[in-house]
Amino acid sequence: MNDLMPSGQVATPVPTIEQALYEKRQKIYPRQVHGRFATLRVIAVVGLLGIYYGLPWLRWQGQPVVLLDLPARKFHIFGLTLWPQDFLLLTLLLIGAALSLFLFTTLAGRLWCGYACPQTVWTEVFLWLERVIEGTRQQRMKLDQGPWNARKWRKKLAKQGLWIAFSLYTGFTFVAYFTPAPQLWTELAAFALGPWETFWFLFYSFATYGNAGFLREQVCKYMCPYARFQSAMFDADTLVISYDRARGEPRGSRRAGSDSRAHGLGDCINCTLCVHVCPTGIDIRDGLQYECIGCSSCVDVCDDVMDKMGYARGLVRYTTQHELDGQPRRIARPRALIYLALLIGVGGTFVSLLLTREPYAIDVIRDRNQLYREHGGLIENVYTLKVLNFDEPSQRFGLSAHGLENMSVDLRGHDIEVASGTVAPFVAVVRAPESALARTSSTITFTLAALRPGAPAVSTTATFLGPAP
Amino acid sequence: MQLIAATRWMPVPARYGAVLWLSFLLAAGATGFFFSIVDPDQLAPCLPFPMVSRLGAYTIGFLAFWLFASLSGVLAVAFTYPPPPAANE
After folding, report:
1. CB atoms < 10 A from the CB of B13, how many?
2. CA-based nearest residue in chain B for residue A74
3. DSSP A34-65
4. What are the extents of the domains in chain B?
5. What are phi and psi of A180, to 5 degrees?
6. A44: CB partners within 8 A, 6+ apart
7. How far apart are CA A118 and CA A128, in angstroms?
8. Hey, what's the torsion of the CAs at A245, A248, A250, A253, to 10 degrees?
9. In the A/B pair of chains, how many CB contacts fall below 8 A?
10. CA-nearest residue of chain A to B57?
11. Gap between the Cα atoms of A370 and A255, Å rounded
């Protein structure tokens, strides 16, 4: 803008508000942390990644334990087979997952973000790889500031190589949830991967690389929808990571073992380690900030410093607003109880639907060509049955009809046999004596049951037409 | 001036980046919902172009949802952010 001004004129200053609200990103170099919560996170990372990378390979009785077989439109999940008809079940499962996230957020704040979010988990691995190649925080900063010499090239290439390899394997695993893993591996090794599989493989690899290697904390700060609306679930009893201002201030450096109170100082020695370890680059001592993902690295590092100084731990700790204000901690409160009640409701509905789920279904359509036919004192109606078999093996079924006296069903000599996961049409001719019809239109019921012991019966109703009595 | 400045807080690439990202989330949801109701194999005879595999249909569907959601977002952003104030203002 200034360049366009004629010389001699003073340019209107660019409104500073633009820069103040959206500053340029500073690269963050988180320092490695050791401690209780860091150990917990490593356990969570290893456990969750173990599940992610291991599940597609796991087989049980010759079947993959988890296979979201999109090409065949069925999901195999722990011995259960879900069809598109089970949309409601899947929806309930997702609503349940969302509600449990709400409940956990109300009770424990950003526990999800700090330990279980894929963004955190994969970033943790990428940071670890970075540390292995480039060294500690100081070494990384020095390397980035230094000239592009052979050593820097070697380190950067090695890091990128490891990151890309890890991302590619992550992308491969993602696709292995949709195509059986051993088959996919064979295809990949023979360079015979289908075009769509290749697309998703590269897409997911790229997303992993971009999010965990490059974007990192920016995903949490600018992209995460959950981070934006979670404040709606927070209250004064939610567990947050907070700096104990009353105890820490006034902060200041001092010699170990010296009496801080005599110097008029609080417990914070202003070592700024809590800032160095923060993956989002904030200072927890400035109070609760939306950038804080609750990773508790600052808690670990501060506890360490407090130990060295001989002070009590917990200057930075998991606490609640009420607790900091000297009030008692409440866990059972309306907000949490409402989320819990909703969760139990959705969970109960899910389980009862799952338990009463019919393994097959029947659909009846009346033949539209003719209303009815008279045949030797009998009235005849023709129907098309559609039988859906959601069960794993192919099934044979028995059909019966009720609702009129002395009625009969004729399948024209066909057996009702339906392969697994398919729909098959059958023609059924229903006959009833004219004397049994009280009106022109009667309701009849078709009942279908598999020909095996203990098979449940499913029913549907249809209209049976006849002459006026 | 102050008001205009306050609504222009996000740099242009970040604005459209946000559109792309949120459209991506929306497209993922829409794809799941749409294809749990519609089987592309049964839709195929009605389509004026050659059939692809189901996985291909899902992918194309996803990309189409993403495209249309992005278009809507891009227009919304373009309409919401006013043009920069003239230099002599």
Report:
1. 8
2. B36
3. -SHHHHHHHHHHHHHHHHHHHGGG-EETTEES
4. 14-80
5. -50, 130
6. A115, A116, A121
7. 15
8. -150
9. 53
10. A196
11. 101
Interface of A with B in 65-104 (CB under 8 A): 70-71, 73, 84, 87, 90
For the segment A171-203, what is each residue's pLDDT rounded down to a tens digit? Answer: 999 999 998 999 999 999 998 888 889 999 999
Chain segment A404-452, per-residue pLDDT in tens? 888 888 888 788 888 877 788 888 999 988 888 888 888 899 998 888 8
Strands (E), A57-187: 59-60, 63-64, 66-69, 74-77, 80-82
- The one-letter amino acid code at A327 reads Q
Tokens coding A68: 């979201």
Q: Give the pLDDT mean for B61-78.
A: 93
Interface mutation vs chain B, best among A9, A10, A17, most B CBs within 10 Å: A17
Contact A22 B1 (CB under 8 A): no
pLDDT above 70 covers a percentage of chain A that reads 94
Contact flag A15-B1 (C-beta cutoff 8 Å): yes
> How far is the alpha carbon of B29 from chain A, nearest alpha carbon, in Å?
11
Chain position carrying tokens 């009346």: A366
Contact list in A for residue B89 (CB cut-off 8 A) is: 12
CB-count burial class (<10 Å; 0-12, 13-18, 19+) for A274: buried
B24: nearest CA in chain A?
A223
Instruction: Determine the residue of chain B that is closest to A94 in CA distance.
Output: B29
**Contact call for B11 and A200, based on CB within 8 A:** no
Q: Which two tokens stand for residue B89?
A: 């203002």
When scoring A4, A14, A19, A73 by the number of chain B Cβ atoms within 10 A, the one with the most, hence best to mutate, is A73
Our CA-based measurement puts residue A196 at a distance from the nearest CA of chain B, in whole angstroms, of 6
Helix (H) or strand (E) holding A197: helix A195-208
The verdict on a CB contact (< 8 Å) between A194 and B36 is: no
Distance from C-alpha of A129 to C-alpha of A144, rounded to nearest angstrom: 16
**Does A147 touch chain B if contact means CB atoms closer than 8 Å?**
no
Give every residue of chain A whose pLDDT is below 50, as ranges.
Answer: 1-21
Partners of residue A398 on adjacent β-strands:
A449
Separation between Cα atoms, residue A320 and residue A189, nearest integer Å: 53
